[in-house]
């Protein structure tokens, strides 16, 4: 492949990347089935797709599925620290996917890579955080006339896209893959829960049992993190701004309190809200010495890092994914993964088993858009319910789990109002 068609760290890593990609595929039975089906049916024949996604082993298998379906695909990273460089190399060398992604790339390189993906003049977009769609609308409007539709993988991206739609700024339909039941109920909860704890443990090697562990936000990601931290023996606190979620956290057995109060007694604090400056200067000023702070939301704005830097007298890096900030009074605050999503920046992201369902939804939604996108409104759309159900059915079958079905009598009863006590 011509060097102009990729920008990765080291092509010599390609064989290692291919081995890990195949390992992940062994845990992705639904995507394997779709790969075989797409190879037979070619539902994406001729489709130009640009994807701004985390360049991981699981994403590589999504890419293989789309290519099997006939797509012409270009990839770039959706986060400067989440790229697995061996996977990026394998995508280029072994699967001939033009890929623009390097772990640790700076901001200018990050957006230059997005620009290269948009040079593909995509008819379909795939996004994880909406940076590709945002750039497309702000700086590459020349490409908009050929875009049929797009998909969005994560909560933060869906929030941004709904804001665009509310401002009448969105110029094509987008399917919110994140909102599929087979995505957020499993990927966000079980995937984020396990991978976030994995990232924290890899970064720090600190025992969680007996520690006070605060989770800011009790959406599906926060639920998963709290559940897994509790499983490690931590004393878990949840902070929230939504009354119903706060009530649910309390009923689930967690302590619920304001974040300022929690900050003073926590050994670990993890943000998972999708909002800005959730951890701010007031929280830093009361934190315990040695408190570990991390973010599991998509962007690194959930922790006000500039405010922490202003309070600090010096900074050191005791471990590869840890920055220790010393404050004027001698207290240390330990920031993980530069405030970026800790499960990918300090570990490997979600296990392949849950990404199997998420990326099956991606593949099916992209194929749906290729057929029907031109007839959809310029809005954020749900994953069609039959596709969501199809993914659940395929996953159950792959797990060897059989379930009951309704009898005709039961179907009639549920559709009738006449029969009662």
TrEMBL record:
<dbReference type="Pfam" id="PF05221">
    <property type="entry name" value="AdoHcyase"/>
</dbReference>
<dbReference type="InterPro" id="IPR020082">
    <property type="entry name" value="S-Ado-L-homoCys_hydrolase_CS"/>
</dbReference>
<feature type="binding site">
    <location>
        <position position="128"/>
    </location>
    <ligand>
        <name>substrate</name>
    </ligand>
</feature>
<feature type="binding site">
    <location>
        <begin position="219"/>
        <end position="224"/>
    </location>
    <ligand>
        <name>NAD(+)</name>
    </ligand>
</feature>
<keyword id="KW-0378">Hydrolase</keyword>
<dbReference type="GO" id="GO:0033353">
    <property type="term" value="P:S-adenosylmethionine cycle"/>
</dbReference>
<comment type="pathway">
    <text>Amino-acid biosynthesis; L-homocysteine biosynthesis; L-homocysteine from S-adenosyl-L-homocysteine: step 1/1.</text>
</comment>
<comment type="similarity">
    <text>Belongs to the adenosylhomocysteinase family.</text>
</comment>
<dbReference type="InterPro" id="IPR015878">
    <property type="entry name" value="Ado_hCys_hydrolase_NAD-bd"/>
</dbReference>
<feature type="binding site">
    <location>
        <position position="56"/>
    </location>
    <ligand>
        <name>substrate</name>
    </ligand>
</feature>
<dbReference type="GO" id="GO:0004013">
    <property type="term" value="F:adenosylhomocysteinase activity"/>
</dbReference>
<protein>
    <recommendedName>
        <fullName>Adenosylhomocysteinase</fullName>
        <ecNumber>3.13.2.1</ecNumber>
    </recommendedName>
</protein>
<feature type="binding site">
    <location>
        <begin position="296"/>
        <end position="298"/>
    </location>
    <ligand>
        <name>NAD(+)</name>
    </ligand>
</feature>
<keyword id="KW-0520">NAD</keyword>
<keyword id="KW-0963">Cytoplasm</keyword>
<feature type="binding site">
    <location>
        <position position="350"/>
    </location>
    <ligand>
        <name>NAD(+)</name>
    </ligand>
</feature>
<feature type="binding site">
    <location>
        <begin position="217"/>
        <end position="222"/>
    </location>
    <ligand>
        <name>NAD(+)</name>
    </ligand>
</feature>
<feature type="binding site">
    <location>
        <position position="188"/>
    </location>
    <ligand>
        <name>NAD(+)</name>
    </ligand>
</feature>
<comment type="function">
    <text>May play a key role in the regulation of the intracellular concentration of adenosylhomocysteine.</text>
</comment>
<feature type="binding site">
    <location>
        <position position="153"/>
    </location>
    <ligand>
        <name>substrate</name>
    </ligand>
</feature>
<keyword id="KW-0554">One-carbon metabolism</keyword>
<dbReference type="GO" id="GO:0006730">
    <property type="term" value="P:one-carbon metabolic process"/>
</dbReference>
<dbReference type="GO" id="GO:0005829">
    <property type="term" value="C:cytosol"/>
</dbReference>
<dbReference type="GO" id="GO:0071269">
    <property type="term" value="P:L-homocysteine biosynthetic process"/>
</dbReference>
<feature type="binding site">
    <location>
        <position position="343"/>
    </location>
    <ligand>
        <name>NAD(+)</name>
    </ligand>
</feature>
<feature type="binding site">
    <location>
        <position position="187"/>
    </location>
    <ligand>
        <name>substrate</name>
    </ligand>
</feature>
<dbReference type="InterPro" id="IPR042172">
    <property type="entry name" value="Adenosylhomocyst_ase-like_sf"/>
</dbReference>
<dbReference type="Pfam" id="PF00670">
    <property type="entry name" value="AdoHcyase_NAD"/>
</dbReference>
<feature type="binding site">
    <location>
        <begin position="154"/>
        <end position="156"/>
    </location>
    <ligand>
        <name>NAD(+)</name>
    </ligand>
</feature>
<feature type="domain" description="S-adenosyl-L-homocysteine hydrolase NAD binding">
    <location>
        <begin position="188"/>
        <end position="349"/>
    </location>
</feature>
<feature type="binding site">
    <location>
        <position position="240"/>
    </location>
    <ligand>
        <name>NAD(+)</name>
    </ligand>
</feature>
<dbReference type="InterPro" id="IPR000043">
    <property type="entry name" value="Adenosylhomocysteinase-like"/>
</dbReference>
<feature type="binding site">
    <location>
        <position position="183"/>
    </location>
    <ligand>
        <name>substrate</name>
    </ligand>
</feature>
<dbReference type="InterPro" id="IPR036291">
    <property type="entry name" value="NAD(P)-bd_dom_sf"/>
</dbReference>
